[in-house]
Amino acid sequence: MFRLLEDDRGRMESTVTIEIDGYPVIARIGETVASALLREGASWSRTTPVSGARRAPYCMMGVCFDCLMLVEGEGLVRACQTLVRAGLKVQRQTGPRKVGPSC
Amino acid sequence: MLKPDLLIVGAGPAGMSAAIVAARAGLKVVVVDEQPTPGGQIWRGVEANAGTSRGRALGSQYCSGLATVRAFRECGAVYWPSTRVWQIEPTLGTYVTGPGGTRVIAPRLVLIATGAQERPAPFRGWTLPGVMTVGAAQILLKNPGSVPSEPVWIAGCGPLALLYAHQLIRMGGAVAGFLDTRPSTPLRESLRLAGRAVLRSSGELAKGMSWYAGLRHRAGRYVPGVVDLQALGTDRLEGVRYRTAAGRLAEIRTSLLLVHEGVLPELHTARSLGCEIQWDAGQAAYRPVLNEWGECSHPDILIAGDAAGIGGAEAAVHRGRLSALRILQRLGKVAAEPGMTEESCRAALARALALRPFLDRVFRPRGEIFAPDDDTIVCRCEELRVRDLRTVLAGSVGPNQLKAFTRAGMGSCQGRQCGLTVAALIAAAEGRQMGEVQPFRVRPPLKPVRLCDLAGLADEGLSS
Amino acid sequence: MLSRRELEHLYPGIRLGKDVTGGAFSALDGHVNPLRLLMALQQGFVDAGGTVHRGRRVDGIEVCGGQFRLHLKTGVVHAARVVIAAGEASRVLAEPLGMTLPFTLQRGQILVTERVGPVLPYPSDRIRQTAGSTIMIGGTKENVGRDTGTTAGAAASLAARAIRVFPDLARVSAVRQWSGRRVITPDIAPIYERSSRFPGAYACICHSGVTLAAYHARGLAKRIAGYGSWDDVQQFSARRFNVQAA
């Protein structure tokens, strides 16, 4: 839904690669996971635990809690408040969080 | 356990300005902020952007934040970025979680400078991916410098919607269309409110008018008098249907809609401490009950900046300083800067607020926001529509029992997105004024906190 | 009583902490959603022809010509029979009607987590998963009078205990903490009182009204309405405490 401005495309030295659902995503150092996600084709962040509806980042300032994702296995993390770092593994949170020995 | 003289929650214009005055006067000050860098929402990323082409496009008012951020960095206050406050107890025991783990702070006084959030304005389909707030898009503009990939549709009312459109166009983005939801304002009343403010703030007014003119000129389409919106699509936004006051229905195709209906003070922190609030009809928002220093109904808590009532960045600076001066007075200190007096701060605050009544009137939100139809989701977290609340609303059980019966406001956002709408629905159902209805009681934690972080406190000997 | 191994069979989806040696199980125990119960009781009452006057505080009850006069802010209500079941406000209302209700207040704090997949198929008195799939962790017992605030200290000890029993909950987030006041009688059993001086006046206080709701709605209500003998209820009179004192 979003694209980086032209003047920033050349700054490859300031990028890192994160993983969203196993796919590599290039992100700018200093940006948030939600911000990187919004440049992806599928920019939704989770499905709700109630109806399974898809949600995407809405407010980007930490007050709507719709960009909740699993970050390095941690649940209920607001992607809009999480800075990217090289190799960060992020997953869309689908439905209620699974709890158990495997987590 | 850290025991500072003053804990400031929020490193925006108000929090930083207060920290500078207090720390320079010799107080031990701790500032906790959720963001990784200082500046709040308004000056977000200003250290990185000032002096660049992006900074220039964002405007001089934005870049002016750099001076405050630099002074704040050097003032001697302890600054914890990327840290969230999840509970302040009435005894001021404060619990925060950040990069350094979970910590307890026991300050003598607390200044809440948590700013504002955008007004939740529910309409059918507003939870679809592809519907975002204008504020969210502006955050992306500041960092990392993203713009909508296609010419974007904006729907809303308020200075921020105009400012964003203006900034976006300057930075090379494009506005496909602007659905203006601003109700028409009686000219005579607006002029009366503008009054002397016009003379004092002619520059501001001219700027605002130029944004409007630019928008009408450079947006693909400009539609005034929009009263109803509906986002269309199943898994993501595919289009928007809108209705104008004149009754005209129309539909557009788009995968991104930015919405904005003004801003509200952040009240969760103050209300979790039982601080009194009141309904401000002019701003169509609840605000804390404060004296001229920002002192609230809790004796050891002060509130400054937009959290004290929407006033904008400049007013926030002066409110922050005034609260800091009061804090110095209470703790037996004096300001280090010679010009930092109550009189100068008050005069500057009055100037900064001069245009506010006019802005509040011109951008007063449309009534439809407070009375969404039965199909509209009110509580985004629990996915409750107005229809789901009707039976309980008819029983006049009040906000807290309504919350208990329906789960509205019980989700992760803790009522930040539905509280005001629910209060309005209760007021309408019971034929009462907003001022007679209290929003949901706010309970800790203010932000979700992991059980292991909580349990860690027990290991430190903290238990009931 | 169950061994640790038997407990593990009851909770196949989650590990037990190393300190868990066993548990107690009763097939008669269950979980009732208190909010839905309250709503259902109110609805049942209305369906049976009752009227709820919401938001009306009763300032006092007088006896007048064999009738009870309830003084409300908005006026007076007359009744041939009155049941005082106002929790901690009951004492003040019951005293003039010749009924003494000894109790103290106890604060209980509860921690509620985010919604998680189903992991706790059985409720316990300290931790249970609700129909909404959140996990409720309770409850403290505190002597703090009327204070219904919540404390981080209580949250810390509730969380620590939950993790001790179910370590997999460590990274689950708490989204809400709340507290309420319990009405605790000297022997924790309910008090059902019938005024001997003013026939037609009754009082009922207990913790918890959720647990005892089935009895209150059927057995007790029937006896107050005049069906069945009061004899077996008599032992729950507050007079039982005077006997002990003597």
In short:
The complex is a heterotrimer of chains A (103), B (464) and C (246). Chain A has 103 residues and is mainly beta.
Describe the protein:
- The complex is a heterotrimer of chains A (103), B (464) and C (246).
- With 103 residues, chain A is mostly beta strands.
- Helices cover 9% and strands 33% of the residues of chain A.
- Chain A has helices spanning 6-9, 33-37, and strands at 2-4, 15-20, 23-28, 46-47, 54-55, 68-71, 74-78, 89-94.
- The longest helix of chain A is centred in the middle third of the chain and has 5 residues, at 33-37.
- In chain B, 55% of the residues are buried.
- The mean pLDDT of chain B is 93.
- Chain C has helices at residues 4-10, 34-47, 90-94, 152-165, 213-224, 231-234, 239-245, and strands at residues 2-3, 22-23, 58-64, 67-72, 75-79, 82-84, 104-115, 127-129, 134-137, 173-184, 191-194, 201-205.
- In chain C, the strands form four sheets. A four-stranded antiparallel beta sheet of chain C has the order 8-9-7-10, covered by helices on one side. In chain C, strands 3-4-5 form a three-stranded antiparallel beta sheet. Chain C has a three-stranded mixed beta sheet with strand order 6-12-11.
- Helices cover 26% and strands 26% of the residues of chain C.
- Chain C is an alpha+beta fold and 246 residues long.
- Chain C has two domains: 2-25 and 104-184, D-Amino Acid Oxidase, subunit A, domain 2 (D-Amino Acid Oxidase, Chain A, domain 2); 57-103 and 187-241, FAD/NAD(P)-binding domain (3-Layer(bba) Sandwich).
- Classes of the chains: A mainly beta (103), B alpha/beta (464), C alpha+beta (246).
- The interface between A and B is large, with 38 and 48 residues.
- Strand 24 (449-450) of chain B pairs antiparallel with strand 10 (173-184) of chain C, so a sheet runs across the interface.
- Chain B: InterPro entries: BFD-like_2Fe2S-bd_dom_sf, FAD/NAD-bd_sf, FAD/NAD-binding_dom, Metab_Enz_Cyan_OpOx_G3PDH, Opine_Oxase_asu/HCN_bsu, SoxA_A3.
- Chain B: Pfam families: Pyr_redox_2, SO_alpha_A3.
